[in-house]
């Protein structure tokens, strides 16, 4: 078995059903570990914003701070936006 950065053992099952009322999705997760396992689940639908592909869309969010992250991508501090690429709307702002 390959090494994992998530050191817990979960059984996750997703069921999809397409019916007259639309798509139904049921996701269940069971902790198979002996200790508590942090777990979260969220849907991320693909939505366009009036462009042919989402790659052409630009999202602008008025904000005073941005979340600085550690090497694992976890937020560690709120940094001011002023004076950064975020303030100018740069697509490749630092993370």
What is the helix fraction of residues, given as a range? under 10%
Distance between the termini: 32 Å
Low-confidence stretches: none
Overall spatial form: flat
Number of helices: 1
Query: Main sheet: which strands, in order across?
Result: 1-2
Order of helices and strands: EEEEH
Mean pLDDT: 83
What gyration radius follows from the Cα positions, in whole Å? 19 Å
Largest β-sheet summary: 2 strands, antiparallel
Structural class: mainly beta
Beta-strand residue fraction: 25-35%
Report the count of strand segments. Answer: 4
Polypeptide structure, described:
- The protein is flat.
- It has one helix at 85-88; strands at 10-19, 22-31, 65-69, 75-80.
- The two termini are 32 Å apart.
- The chain has 95 residues and is mainly β.
- The strands form two sheets. The chain has a two-stranded antiparallel sheet. Strands 3-4 form a two-stranded antiparallel sheet.
- β1 (10-19) and β2 form a beta hairpin.
- 4% of the residues lie in helices and 33% in strands.
Please outline what is shown here.
By secondary structure, this protein is mainly β.
Keyword list:
single chain, 33% strand, mainly beta, two-stranded antiparallel ribbon, 95 residues, two-stranded antiparallel sheet
Question: What does the secondary structure layout of this molecule look like, with pairings?
Answer:
Elements: E1 10-19, E2 22-31, E3 65-69, E4 75-80, H1 85-88
Antiparallel strand pairs: 1-2, 3-4
């Amino acid at each position: 078995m390959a090494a994992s950065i998530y050191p817990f053992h979960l059984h996750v099952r997703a069921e999809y059903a397409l019916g007259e009322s639309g798509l139904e999705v049921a996701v269940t997760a069971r902790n198979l570990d002996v200790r508590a396992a942090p777990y979260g689940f969220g849907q991320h639908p693909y939505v366009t914003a009036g462009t042919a592909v989402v790659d052409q869309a630009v999202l602008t969010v008025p904000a005073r701070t941005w979340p600085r992250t550690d090497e694992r991508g976890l937020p560690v501090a709120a940094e001011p936006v002023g004076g950064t690429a975020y303030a100018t709307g740069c697509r490749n702002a630092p993370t």
